[in-house]
UniProtKB/TrEMBL annotation:
Coiled coil: none annotated. Its main location: secreted. It is found in: Secreted. The keyword Disulfide bond applies. It comes from Panicum miliaceum (Proso millet). Residues 13-27 have a biased composition (Polar residues). This is Xylanase inhibitor protein. One of its GO terms (cellular component) is extracellular region. Residues 1-61 are annotated as: Disordered. InterPro entries: Cts1-like, GH, Glyco_hydro18_cat, Glycosyl_Hydrlase18_Chitinase.
Amino acid sequence: MVKEKEHTRDLPSATNASITHNIQNHPTGHLHAQRATHHGVPAPAKPSGGGSPPARVPPAPRLPLRPAAAKQTGQLTVFWGRNADEGTLREACDTGLYTTVVISFYSVFGHGRYWGDLSGHPLAGVGADIKHCQSRNILVLLSIGGPGNGYSLPSSQSAADVGDNLWNAHLGGRRRGVFRPFGDAAVDGIDFYIYHGGPSHYDELARRLDGYNRFYRGRKGVRLTATPRCGFPDPLLDGALRTGLFERIHVRFYGNDTRCSYGAGAGTWGVAEAWKKWAARYPKSEVYLGLAPAESGVPEGAQGTVAVYLKYLYYDLLPKVQEAPNYGGVMVWDRFSDKKTRWSTVVKGWA
């Protein structure tokens, strides 16, 4: 790992004093990450209020060039829907930061009941926001699962039923009598974020959903992505991923897994070692580096350039993961903490 002192020395001289001051006045005196506290998902920070995010993306700080050229895609995916104080879906898309927004979560399914949890966001207006984001060429996905325990697939029939409900309630289906929470808006695909229960039948659900692409001509109307744990392989999603139907995999390098979580002691080395396994195992899928701003060492309400807290990401981690030919971009958990820390305003230029 590159030492913090070396990073500071390599930065432009005009910024050395302010950066050193910021590091010394960090609560811990160094760049460290906070641990997750709830189901492996970073606990949300206290709301700070304030207005909507700016519509224009600020340029990334001009840090010295890294030693080796890296593949950058500019692709930034964010999870939205976990805190009412994060702002609307439209506001997230209008920041210009994200290329994909994942609505989370469709969290009750598998036993004849189907429902989603948007953490206090009113349903009214979400459909219009989905269309607005899509008009800006931003993909909008719906994630199923999450940290709750209201879902499972106990049988092949339940997998078929869940696929049928997703198709008719959120995708291109229009069966009469099926409630569509977002009106006539259709999401671009389904993300699998399976955190509880067993692994059975998620491969069947993936095949069921992919089968609906037969109704589209010349394009893929139902995209499949997955957001597994960083520990390889993820026992809950391994069977589904083996189908080869998932075009993108957002690996969650955050949470409580000390082997590979960025903020749980694994550091850049542990993340990079796990990343190699994911990238090598799924060469036909784009693999995304999933990180949580709340675990990246950026203190709440940080003043001045946020880049000072992210130098390890810039110098150590991103160059390693971007060596993979199937590196896809960066996934951000989640919009609420990203809005508070302004994390993506920096990372966007590095992704």
